[in-house]
Amino acid sequence: MRRAFPLLLAAALCAGCYHLTVITGAPASATVIEVPWQPSFIAGLIPPPVVNTKERCPLGVARVETERTILNALVTSLTSDIFSPLAVTITCATGPVRP
């Protein structure tokens, strides 16, 4: 067990979190939608449900950030990738994409 612990610790630290940002090119507004526990399953093979932004972002979306936080990664590892939640942050746009 003493030899396995450093390997397990290294695997946990190297598994890390990921962060994906999509920028549409539209000017950003101050309105931000945060969903800290967007559920996905089986290591993301069953994707999270769609976040409906039409009511809060009538002019569209400027930026979407998807990440796996440390707490999300902990839950994912505890459930052996069966439940793998994500944190989603959506920034609304103030107008259309400028050419």
Describe this entry's structure for a reader.
- The protein is of the alpha+beta class.
- It has helices spanning 4-15, 70-78, and strands spanning 19-23, 28-38, 61-67, 86-93.
- The chain has a four-stranded antiparallel beta sheet, with no helix packed on it.
- It is elongated.
Question: What can be said about this structure in brief?
Answer:
By secondary structure, this protein is α+β, with helices and mostly antiparallel strands.
N-to-C series of helices and strands? HEEEHE
Q: Mean of the pLDDT scores?
A: 87
Radius of gyration: 17 Å
Distance between the termini: 60 Å
Low-confidence stretches: none
Biggest sheet: strand arrangement: 1-3-4-2
Number of strands: 4
Quick one: biggest sheet? Answer: 4 strands, antiparallel
Question: Helix/strand-derived class?
Answer: alpha+beta
What percentage of the residues does DSSP assign to strands (E)?
A: 25-35%
Global geometry? elongated
Percent of residues in helices comes to: 10-25%
Count of alpha and pi helical runs: 2
Q: Could you outline the blueprint of secondary structure elements for this entry?
A:
Layout: H1 4-15, E1 19-23, E2 28-38, E3 61-67, H2 70-78, E4 86-93
Antiparallel strand pairs: 1-3, 2-4, 3-4
